[in-house]
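Interim report, section 4.2 (structural modelling).
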Amino acid sequence: DIVLTQTPLSLSVTPGQAASISCKSGQSLLHSDGETQLSWYLQKPGQPPQLLIFGVSNRFSGVPDRFSVSGSGTDFTLKISRVEAEDVAVYYCMQSLHVPFTFGQGTRLEI
Amino acid sequence: QVQHVQSGAEVKGPGASVKVSCKASGYIFTNYAIHWVRQAPGQRLEWMGWITGGNGDTTYSQKFQGRVSMTRDTSAGTAYMELRSLASEDTAVYYCAKDGGGLQSWGQGTLVTVSS
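Predicted structure of the assembly:
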């Protein structure tokens, strides 16, 4: 199974500041078709996960442009440019290149 | 809008089976696969498998192979996940989600508790 390692596991940020979460994969997530099979989710307390970004650079419908992803191959970073109170959540990366799809262990963002 | 409504919470004894439903709306059900993901208390998300929308082909995580069945009723726009031989470690919230570039539009989750 592909192991995804997220760091840090928790993060405390002041509103308006930037936040970054790293996701490192044990294998390259680049598909032969040129697409990177990585996506990011946030899960607010008591709610199901929500898709943020897929394929590295594609923000899902309604996701503000404060959220962006950089990186390639095995190393990726989710950046929130200006954290808001509503961003409090646990953030997960997920790879969908190989079965079983796997998730990182999650990063808790606090304010 | 796209929505997935899951069946209610279940309490099962060890060795029993559970079947969770996921009713889709707001899109053409047969055009998209449905994934199933679970989350045990305090644990990371765990992908269980998926079922394609068109012909109902399934792909399961090897961890659940032989113990899980994913099916769908296209006329009802509903996907199902059955897990057999339940053990305490299967206590978790089970989610369905629509495929389409990442896992989109998750259901609200179904809590399955395995307890004697």
